[in-house]
């Protein structure tokens, strides 16, 4: 009788997590580094390749977190590594403000070409997503001469003071760090899973869009608002996906009042949602766009791209930074974009998301703890609840599922305003076999933890 060939496995767990070497490093970490920077997995990386990450004790994991969405092209993509090696032979950092260099210009030209809209655009570079947000707000205020900036409930825009002020979740991001930047306001963002029973999606959208008009009467007039900043899919907020109607409605409000629309594509950009940029799903062309994370395979660089006349509002020396647009980040980003285009990774994101959605919607039929499964491309989330009727968030169960998955060799993270959403941000270069194995482990973690959670 013919036997089926044994499937290759990629996970190899030699120790519990943390292993002996990781425990030594963990003790050093606790002694020398503040407790504030959080860590998802209690171990230390030794080598990364594609969707695999090996720790210092020789344990190999399937990475479904992708450095919080920074590794759409995977760990150490060879083309990026080669481009970096070549750049290292020439110069490291002359500083664009001292002596300019071509990779900065080439990357700006590329982003101007591939971001939504066929209008004239300009781009400049910084170090992080938060810095991009800070500077997009500066540019919007400078251009409009207005003061107020509106963000959204559950939104996340970074940890610097303006970005933190625009961020919604209080703990752990804002608690005890006030006062915050003035003239920042928040509006509701649709969360269709949690709307009152009987309300249609259209009704939700109409009600929330009307709140803008009410706000302009009761809080700040529309002519005083410089910008509205929106994540096309909320990241830290729980991978919450709005409708086309809602996003287009917000853009229409911007146009009515002369408000600039800033798309925060830090987590959604560069193929993650099945388009190069998530705003393409909604048929909306933003005035300004912020980018970072997967722009350069994990190297620290961010960008603000916008309409040329808006980007030229600040005068010489009014925007920039010593390390913004480092040569290494620029050459890495150019290779990442080439990989996205040549290897059709946005299309691959759709396939990955479909596999995750099918797997966990099927599991949802068996398990009451799965309240909702949401995907847009390979930006995928599973919301964990105590009860499917009350939809009460279950943070503790979410934590146990994550810990079980980590011990079994799959790296995955939580998200959501209640920390009850498991988010999947696997590299888009993950193979079908790796994805299947990772989802098998995650499914078993669900079954073990959810079964243990049932009353006896």
What is the number of helical segments per DSSP (H or I, 4+ residues)?
13
Q: In which range does the helix fraction lie?
A: 25-40%
Enter the CATH topology name of the largest domain.
Aspartate Aminotransferase, domain 2
Q: Any idea what the CATH architecture of the largest domain is?
A: 3-Layer(aba) Sandwich
Q: Can you say what the CATH homologous superfamily of the largest domain is? A: Type I PLP-dependent aspartate aminotransferase-like (Major domain)
Coarse structural class: alpha/beta
Task: Name the overall outline.
Answer: globular
Q: Radius of gyration over alpha carbons? A: 22 Å
Q: Any idea how many domains?
A: 2
Mean of pLDDT: 95
* Largest β sheet strand count, sense and barrel closure: 7 strands, mixed
How many extended strands? 15
Low-confidence stretches: none
* The CATH top-level class label of the largest domain: Alpha Beta
Spatial ordering of strands, largest sheet = 4-10-9-8-7-5-6
Order of helices and strands: HEEEHHHEHEHEHEHEEEHHHEEHEEEH
Give the DSSP E fraction (strand runs of 2 or more residues).
15-25%
Protein name: (S)-3-amino-2-methylpropionate transaminase
Pathway: Amino-acid degradation; 4-aminobutanoate degradation
Organism: Paenibacillus pectinilyticus
Cofactor: pyridoxal 5'-phosphate
